[in-house]
Specification:
With 574 residues, the chain is an alpha+beta fold. The protein has 13 helices and 33 strands. The longest helix is centred in the last third of the chain and has 17 residues.
Amino acid sequence: MLGSSVRTFHRLCSSSIMINHRSLLLPSSALLPEPRTSAKSSSNSLAVTVSCSLKENRCGEARRWISMATVLLKNYTVKCRSFSVEVRNPATDAYSAIEIALDSVVKIFTVSCSPNFILPWQNKPQKESIGSGFAIHGRQILTNAHVVADHTFVLVRKHGSPTKYRAQVKALGHECDLAILVVDNEDFWVGMNSLELGDIPFLQEAVAVVGYPQGGDNISVTKGVVSRVELTHYAHGQNQLLAIQIDAAINPGNSGGPAIMGNKVAGVAFQNLSGAENIGYIIPVPVIKHFLSGVEERGKYVGFCSMGLSCQTLENVQLRNHFKMHADMTGVLVSKVNPLSDAHKILKKDDIILAFDGVPIANDGTVHFRNRERITFDHLVTMKKPNETARVRVLRDGEEHEFCIALLPLQPLVPIHQFDKLPSYYIFGGLVFVPLSQPYLQEFGDDWYNTCPRRLTERALRKLPKKAGEQYVILSQVLMDDINAGYERCNSLQVKKVNGEEVLNLKHLCKLVESSAEENVRFDMEEERVIVLNYNSAKVVTSKLLKRHRIPSAMSGDLVDNRNSSQIELSSSN
């Protein structure tokens, strides 16, 4: 209860804590000198400054006084700077937040057009949406990725201006739900101020969320306090990253706006909790900086690292005894290792990870965060940059080892999202082949987990890739014709082989079919099903079906480019 304010005092910065000065009782042991007070008032605000000169030997007493004051915090904000205390009416915080935001926060107008994954040669109808963003260093605008996902046209408007300016998307990080926009028009930047990034706020610190939520056209400010800091499910990118829960309302349109604490940004508003009132989430500064630094260093978004592990907690004492753990040992049990990770070369099933970069891991999988807060050790992994190494202390067969493991962003066998990217497809004899993805499954409806084929759900959520570039290729549908009658029962089955050769991905399948010298093409499917088509007849039927269904091409653009490059390589070798 007292640790937060003590650490706030140690930081000697402008972090805020709350206190009810009318209830404050000073202990006699505090031995504080008589404070000097001054007050300024107006019709709109009240500012009272309390300061005192402390001798060096009384610093400890001052810390205890600040700690006790924290318990009574209700209505006013206390700021600590080098042993000086300033008390302000909280209404001035909201006013200051507005003043800071007026020349920084922008309204974003997006026109987007998402692909149809069931009919991958078509797009869904375009739609319009609004969001918020704010200026940062380098003449850039920071916002949420979901605000501009699948964008075709983006405009931004400054507060108080009737003019909308064309914006370009410079970088997108869908896992962390962040995006960078740039505006080339010089007039847009006249009078614009960039906001500075602050730090992770402590519990119960006040923040103001600034943006353009639905229900009005002008800027809006909502106040709240920090309720929780922990790893949270990011709805847009389907990822687990650090997030801050606040009790301020975050509504559609608020997304991408800054959460301001003092005169700096504490986070970016991005989602709320469905079915609950006044529970919103903001993306904290460490995640923002990780995204920005990756873009600055590599020119594009590179993703968040993973060890590629599936781990089990070791909270059961009998389980710990079985793996020869001493009483002072804590850690997590390795259950599965991604074959494409560097850890696959080093770690084994039933290894116990005791520490990550010297930080002990508890039996419940958490590590110390700050004060008495704890978060899962995945946070330490995600904050690593690609190709960085981590020191991992491991217990194996009762003996301790220390390994260095390189960390990289890892892609699942079945992609979780495919924003700003056209889906791949290949049509042969009316058979439509696609790589399985979660966006494809989501076309079955909001309850896709229960409505789509069960085997596809299991593959999407649990199956790991065995080789680099591997895809789970399925027969999506059959465009009916005499040549393929009866094969519609093979819908949603995986294609395992083409003419006896295992299929790695859709490009590989396309290459095997197009370069086939056999009279017939045989597809070995899941569940021991077999499809056979005459090559020449299938080619003729394909052209006829493309015209009938108004499909522009028998294959997606990425496969066309791949086929052309393959033909160039073949001709050069001849």
